[in-house]
Every structure is written in C-alpha cells, then in structure tokens.
Design a protein that fits this description.
mainly alpha
Amino acid sequence: MSWWEATILGLIQGLTEFLPISSSAHIRVLGPLLPHGADPGAAFTAIIQLGTEAAVIVYFWKDLVRIVGAWLAALAGRHGKDRASRWGARSADARLGWWVILGSVPIVVLGVLFKSVIENGLRHLLITAAVLAVFGLLLGVVDRVRPQERGLETLTAKDAVILGFAQAAALVPGVSRSGGTITAGRWLGLTREAAARYSFLLAIPAVIASAFFELATNLGEITAPGGVGILATVIATVVAFGVGYAVIVWFLKLVTTRSFMPFVIYRVLFAAVIVALVAGGAISATA
C-alpha cells in the first residue's frame, strides 16, 4: 500500500470513527477501490483506530484524570469503607469509572469468542449494507421518540451492561461502535451529548485492547507479502489521530443543537451504494 492510500484510509478513519456511520464499513468498502485493491483487513482496521482513540484521550484528558482519580479514591475507601462507597455511591465520577469497566466486558468477551466469525464471515459486504441501513433507521426512530432527560451521573449498572452490549454489536462491520452506543443511550433517555460522550469514553478500553490483541496475533497479516505494510499502517494511524480530534470537537458541538437524522439518511444511502457496487462488480462482497 502506498503512502497516499494510507493517508486516505487514515482520513476516512478519522472522519468516520466518532460519527454513527461505521468507520469499519468505510474502510472495508474503500480499501478494494484503491490501487492496492484489497480489503485492508481486520488487523489494519483495529490498529489505525489507536489513532482516533489517542484523539479521545487527548480531548478528554482532564475528564479521564478526574474519573480515574475518583475511581481509585473510591476503591481505596477514601469515600467510605463500605462496599457501596467503594462502588461509587458518593461519587458520580467513580461510578462512571466502574460503568466504563463494566460496559467494556461484553465486547471483550464476545470479540474473543467470535474472533474468527467477525474477521471472516461478518465482513461480507451485503451484511454490512444491511446493518448500516437497519441500525441507521433504528437510531433515527429512537432519537425521535425518546426524551432527553438524563445525564451521565444518572447511569446505573444495568445501563452500563445495556450500553456495553450495544457497543459489542459493532463487532459486525456496519453497526458502528458510536452508533450502537448512542442509540442505546438515547433509548435509555440520555441527552444526545451525554450519549455521545459516554460512547467515546466506553470505546477507549475496547479499542486499545483490540488493537494490541491484533498486534499480538495478526501482525503477520500486515507484514506479509501483499499486505498493507507497517509504514502504511503508521501513516494511517497518525492521520486518523489529527482528523479524529477535529471531528470530536465538531460532533460534540453539533449534537447539542441537532438531531442524528443526517447520519441516518447517510447510512441508508451508503448502504445502497454498497449494494450497487457489489451488484455492478466494482468490489467483491467477500474479503
């Protein structure tokens, strides 16, 4: 893969990771259309997401320091020695730390158990197109009918589990990690901004774990003859960081005043484009 192809993929990753439109679906579709002419693969996709997650860490650095500090303080018994206090009963930030940990369990467990299916059968483009459209419409309906009445401080353990499984649905390309989590968050009555913020925070452990797991198990996929190559992967990751940071700033401002309907329409149209590309023979439905 050339440097400019890697730059384009990094740009797409940065633009789409935080929007509810599925970055993995875009990378999966765009890869075969570039001169390199192949699906970049699950390992490449997981690793360049480190760039966008680095952007989340930089943007939310003060929040993360506060949340981790409160979580450690509660765990150490500084808010009280009883179990409820250690679980954050007296600190919303400590509770949020626990809910991010709890919400990360489903995607880790399901990702390991169904790794082979996820990286092979579920990357079929017609499946991607179907879930893009279906989950896009679901986001539109939920965002329209559910009230915006809850902040992150109101989250419970039950909410964290629901949001965790919603994030895990994004193991299927086309669902969208942020889209799944935001949809579930809006169903639970979270404001658009709260749902978006939680989706960003919840993604940090999962994406970092996924990237390093892929490095440990599938590095050969990148370095093999005909693979994307380490340099291209690094370039795409760096570009994804810069673009992703800008998108975070823009998206959080957008959701305070606008609905998610433009993204719903985009998902349906993108699904139609995928079907047309596959039907016309421009790209293969399988990797």
